[in-house]
User: Which sequence fits this backbone?
């Protein structure tokens, strides 16, 4: 089982490397990431969250199938912005309202090396944006205003000392 790294681990703030060879090792990693995501009771998990600087994430939202995104890029977003309470497996137990585009179009490669394009809305659009942020070293708390972020970090720090 892959371990999920938490806030404070420097890997969460680093940029990932593009995956140049989608092979069996990457496919195995994707399956292991899906298992770790389920184990953590999450809906998405990016490679940096398991300590790997690879451009990939997995997700599974209700009503959809598990998905693997390798070298994902958002190529379109809606004008409409929506707030939604987000959390993160790397900041367990902490939540904050983040405003993001309501829909996105993303292109990526799956675990078989096949390119695809996906128009995502609702929770899937939210998860895609959240996980792509991880690939850039950005956490959901970075989207909160200073006061919210400070309060959340204070609570998290207190919780982690227990």
Assistant:
């Amino acid at each position: 089982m892959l371990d999920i790294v938490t806030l404070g681990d420097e890997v969460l703030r680093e940029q990932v490397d593009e995956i140049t060879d989608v092979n069996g090792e990457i496919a195995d990693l994707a399956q292991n990431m899906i298992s770790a995501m389920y184990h953590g009771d999450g809906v998405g998990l990016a490679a940096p969250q398991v300590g790997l600087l690879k451009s990939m994430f997995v997700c599974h939202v209700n009503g959809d199938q598990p998905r693997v995104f390798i070298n994902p890029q958002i190529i379109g977003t809606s004008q409409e912005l929506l707030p939604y309470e987000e959390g993160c497996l790397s900041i367990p137990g902490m939540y904050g309202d983040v405003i993001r585009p309501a829909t996105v179009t993303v292109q990526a490669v799956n675990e078989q090396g096949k390119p695809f394009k996906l128009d995502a809305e609702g929770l899937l659009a939210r998860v895609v944006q959240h996980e792509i942020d991880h690939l850039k070293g950005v956490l959901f708390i970075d989207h909160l205003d200073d006061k919210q972020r400070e309060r959340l970090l204070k609570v998290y720090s207190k919780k982690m000392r227990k």
Summary: The chain has a mean pLDDT of 97. Residues 83 and 99 are 4 Å apart (CA to CA).
